[in-house]
Amino acid sequence: MLPYSAYQESADFIRQRIGKRHPRVLLILGSGLGFLGDEVEDAVCIDYGDIPHFRPSTAPDHKGRLVTGTLEGTEVMVMQGRMHYYEGYSPEEIVFPVRVAKLLGVEYMIVTNAAGAINKSYQVGDLMLIRDHIRIMGESPLRGENLPQFGPRFCDMTTTYDPALREMAGRLADKLGLRTQTGVYFYFPGPQFETPAEIVLARTLGGDAAGMSTVYEATAANHCGIRTLGVSLMTNMAAGILMQPLSGEEVNAAAARAKDSFTALIRACLQEMRG
């Protein structure tokens, strides 16, 4: 267990680098979606490896750096790449940046990911606003000694993904003419893609999209009072639906094709969060 002082040390280091900036929104960019971090204005970029207690991101196409600055006039802290359980990191290490963001004054989190569509009515390129998630594998990031400075020992998970933020995103997507869905994200630990039988199970249990991230960060954000909007980009149909092999290259290619719609929605949300 990392002590509370470790989070304070990381937050103090970042404050020294970013000066008087006060990030309002933490934006976590998933596989193939890191390009938005390059659009931050007046950016200060810090490699994860330079920040005390941060872990490097080893996933392909994840730059592994923290970018602070403004997007749509909103002060943001952008994670260009995240830590995953399949990289060998513990849930506590995965959510470490979220808790540091809380100490830096972040109020909102937009957590994004590339996902496989379990729901057969979905299409590749759809944006799914996460209503809820299912995690039946992997331990909780809240396991172990509770740090009361972040939240209670037992936290309610009824509205992990903020309904008001989800309504806002849906309204903005409609205005932009974007095809969106609202559904349940089913977590798998990876790094292998799911089997067709696992996807059938996930669908039976109520999952609409499958992925290997997001739930740990969302759980920690909920625990420490950060309001969360979750957005999944459907980069492929999940295993067994089309009976064709899945690959990381396919995920990144689909993310590149959806760049404009993804960027438009996130930017519109940031305008509303400007405060």
Structure report:
With 275 residues, the protein is α/β, with parallel strands linked by helices. It has a single domain (23-145, 156-272), classed as 3-Layer(aba) Sandwich (Rossmann fold), CATH 3.40.50.1580. 31% of the residues lie in helices and 24% in strands.
What level of helicity do the residues show? 25-40%
Mean pLDDT figure:
93
Radius of gyration: 17 Å
In what order do the strands lie side by side in the largest sheet? 5-8-7-6-9
Structural class: alpha/beta
Runs in which pLDDT lies below 50 for 5 or more consecutive residues are: none
Largest sheet: 5 strands, mixed, barrel
Strand content: 15-25%
String of helices and strands: HEEEEHEEHEHEHEHH
Distance between the termini: 36 Å
Question: What is the topological layout?
Answer:
Blueprint (H helix, E strand, L loop, with lengths): L3 H15 L6 E5 L11 E7 L17 E7 L2 E7 L10 H13 L4 E10 L9 E8 L28 H14 L3 E8 L8 H9 L4 E3 L3 H9 L3 E11 L10 H10 L1 H14 L3
Parallel strand pairs: 1-4, 1-5, 5-9, 6-7, 7-8
Antiparallel strand pairs: 2-3, 3-4, 5-8, 6-9
Question: Quick summary of this structure?
Answer:
With 275 residues, this protein is of the alpha/beta class. The protein contains seven helices and nine strands. Helix 1 (4-18) packs across helix 2 (91-103) and helix 2 (91-103) crosses helix 5 (215-223).
Write out key terms for the chains shown.
275 residues, alpha/beta, Rossmann fold, five-stranded mixed beta barrel, 7 helices
